Amino acid sequence: MTSKAIDPKTLNNIIRRGVTEIIVEEEFVRLLQEGKPLRLKMGFDPSRPDIHLGHAVGLRKLRQLQDLGHQVILIVGDWTAQIGDPSGQSATRQMLTAEEVRANAETYLQQFFKVIDKERAQTVWQSEWFGNFTLANVFELTRRFTVAQFLARDDFAKRFRAQQPIAITELLYPLLQAYDSVQIQSDVEFGGTDQMFNILVGRDLQGMMGQRQQQCFFMPLLVGTDGVQKMSKSLGNYIGVDEPPNEMYGKVMSIPDSLMMDYFELLTDVPDEELAEMRRGMDAESVNPMEFKKRLALDIVAQFHGGMAAAKTAEASFERTVQRGETPEEIVEVSIVSPTDLSRFLVAASLATSRAQSKRLIAQGAVDINGSTQKDEGAVIKQDDIVRVGRHGFVKVKIVNADAS
Amino acid sequence: MTSKAIDPKTLNNIIRRGVTEIIVEEEFVRLLQEGKPLRLKMGFDPSRPDIHLGHAVGLRKLRQLQDLGHQVILIVGDWTAQIGDPSGQSATRQMLTAEEVRANAETYLQQFFKVIDKERAQTVWQSEWFGNFTLANVFELTRRFTVAQFLARDDFAKRFRAQQPIAITELLYPLLQAYDSVQIQSDVEFGGTDQMFNILVGRDLQGMMGQRQQQCFFMPLLVGTDGVQKMSKSLGNYIGVDEPPNEMYGKVMSIPDSLMMDYFELLTDVPDEELAEMRRGMDAESVNPMEFKKRLALDIVAQFHGGMAAAKTAEASFERTVQRGETPEEIVEVSIVSPTDLSRFLVAASLATSRAQSKRLIAQGAVDINGSTQKDEGAVIKQDDIVRVGRHGFVKVKIVNADAS
User: Which of A208-212, B213-217, B318-322 has the lowest average pLDDT?
Assistant: First the structure.
């Protein structure tokens, strides 16, 4: 398999749109134009199984390259997850059990392939190399870098100055991630700007170990729905790619107007020229930003929920419940055949995409029945119940079998 | 086997003489008096195969405890030697090959058993546990300590402040040494005060891993022949236990008078009362310190060269060549049966204790024949040659077979 030739517009789209920096850009472009399939490294931290739009920025970039014939190597970080990467974090993370890692990997992959082309992706586990790692192998990595080099990493430096504990194990994290690049012979690694240190260690280590050095592709951090901090599950300002259409639509609609154009640029394929025109319209106040934002929400929901149909339904629901402020009595009815339990109902009503997600939402207290939070996934749903998920999903139950009134 | 009961004088000798600190002294005394054989940990760094009198201070303490029935566990640090301990050093050390480690261990053991009772000693290699160490095992150690804790170690702190490189590998050194204690279930570890950090990490780790914590026995650092710095091979102020009698005798005689009583205390069994009396005599200037120093030199040479005979010969040689400044023509004759090569001759003449040592001395340029340095170990020794080793050993060759003139 060889990759396709690249026209200047596509090239520009790849190396400019939604890209902060490429190290080394000229080499990356040369490799792209050489036409051989490149090995695109993507690491997955199984302690964070849920993908949100912040991650999607990078995944969309990978997909662009896949569409040119390049190959994604997804590394399941089952060993680094045992340490926990403190990049941008303030404390050492809890270790995961093997069982949790496996379950989280399943959750992740199901979301991952909403963006990534499964045909041009390969999944490998760190266990394949770290499972047999010896103490001599550890020395081989640790002897090449100094404590001071690593303590210079932004988050380490802050914690060290603040006298917060940094476990010695944590210094191993960037080394292991770097060794992944050596092991899979990565040609390009992708990450947010907060991953710059780790990704460059990978490049260095490949060079030290006699390998061609990977190109490093840094992307901006997507700001979350609060309009202030980077999107992050722990900050609660995220939009998960696995959230139900209504929820996702509503969350996109809730972002500040000031973020909208960044979201268009990083999360849609709307062409640059059109974006420029939208910006001009907004500056001249000749357009209603709400209409642009609805286009954004439609586009994003359609991407993650199999097309326009689901997106349009979500839009209709949003218009009814939020824009027109209608009461629950006036909301969509969902017909079911017989009384059923809550977790099954949410799936049937498209308020959740799977039983697992349904159960998570219920456990998190995100589900109301008739105005009261319901945490029992087995609660029975009856005729005329009003079921609400989060801020944006309301439905009224209609039971259509003979026993119902 | 149970250890012997301890009279108060012996106990005092063990816990006071030549001891800087015991952590925790009361527990150590209780363990001693319990009477069960204790496991005494002694680590050997195979990158430093030669034992000098500075090391002998600790080995003599071990021997005292062996004589009460306790067991020495000697750990050959074939893994830690791959890192090199920077305690008190200023730079990362070169790695050794497996072959060098093996050869050095042989050299070491031959010297070690000049002090240690072979019958109550067991030798183990770190390979027995580190050879199968996994990355998970490494995490198990590294997650328990922080970077800041380790950078607080004196020599690390100095290098870090001075912006000298500290390889990440070096942080693993104290952890591996500590894990040795866990692995051999050490009851007591011994070391100079410069080993305090490492030895206490061992004690901590045992506790963290649910084991009874070792007692820690810290001994003063012996000052070298220059009277200023701690004895160290690299500073050239050392007296090796494997040096030939004349050389050893002469070096002891070269120490400043001010060090003499410390040497008596740390390196001989001359009773405390006698030492007190000697001190009084010196303070009153009623004695000649030279006589005391000759007693010290005799005692030390006798310890390491199988008794008084060799010591007396060394003394006689010293008196002739140094004290009376006699010329080489007046020195001891050594009779050999036929011309032989230089390396064999040095052993026959008791100027070296082994062929290996003999070859080392020649290679170092420490050997003269008729006033010229001779670096060829195969040089043939002839009638009337004057052979000199270092500053103190002169002999004249006499060949007694029929062919000699």
Answer: B318-322
Report how far residue A341's alpha carbon sits from residue A331's, in angstroms, rounded to the nearest whole number: 21
The ipTM (two decimal places) reads 0.73
Identify which of A45, A111, A394, A376 has the alpha carbon closest to the alpha carbon of residue A243. Answer: A111
Chain B hits for A130, Cβ within 8 Å:
135
**Closest-CA distance of chain B to residue A132, Å:** 7
Q: How far apart are the first and last CA of chain A?
A: 62
Omega before residue B19 within 30° of 0, cis? no
Give all strands (DSSP E) within B34-110, no chain letters: 39-44, 71-76
Q: How far is A150 from chain B (nearest CA, A)?
A: 9
Task: Write out pLDDT tens, residues B115-172.
Answer: 999 999 999 999 999 999 999 999 999 999 999 999 988 889 999 999 898 999 999 9
Q: Give the rounded distance of the alpha carbon of B341 from its chain centre.
A: 30
B270 three-state secondary structure: coil
Please report, to the nearest 10 degrees, the dihedral formed by the alpha carbons of residues A175, A176, A177, A183 taken in order: 110
For residues B158, B159, B162 and B168, what is the CA-based torsion angle, rounded to 10 degrees? -140
3-state secondary structure of A214: coil
Mean pLDDT of A216-245: 91
Q: For B3-40, how does the pLDDT look when each residue is reduced to its tens digit (9 = 90+)? A: 557 888 888 889 999 899 999 999 999 999 988 999 99
Q: State the average pLDDT for chain B.
A: 87
Furthest C-alpha separation in chain B: 75
Chain A residues at the B interface, defined by Cβ less than 8 Å, are 79, 82-83, 92, 130, 133-139, 142-148, 150-151, 160, 163, 165-172, 175
